[in-house]
UniProtKB/TrEMBL annotation:
GO function term, MF aspect, one: acyltransferase activity, transferring groups other than amino-acyl groups
Name of this protein: Acetyltransferase family protein
Pfam families: Acetyltransf_3
Domain N-acetyltransferase: 5-62
Amino acid sequence: MTPSVECSWRLARFAWGRGYMTEAARSALDDGFRRIELRRVHAWTSATNIRSRQVMQRIGMQRAEWLDFDHPALAADHPLRRHVVYFAER
């Protein structure tokens, strides 16, 4: 997935479900492609983080299943161990 720039986010729970993250992520992605002339951006999250995955999909990122991975810092039976990868290209 290289060369690629990672896009990530964290949002306080009280702000969830209001569209803030989608708007901010879309703006960052557009700016990265237009102004900085990035070619590829990727993001990853726990497979169970449906809200984050939905943001990635709404801003036009595509799932890269072949890059999904188990987070090495989490135990094999940890519910957040499996991670999924998304990307967008200009």
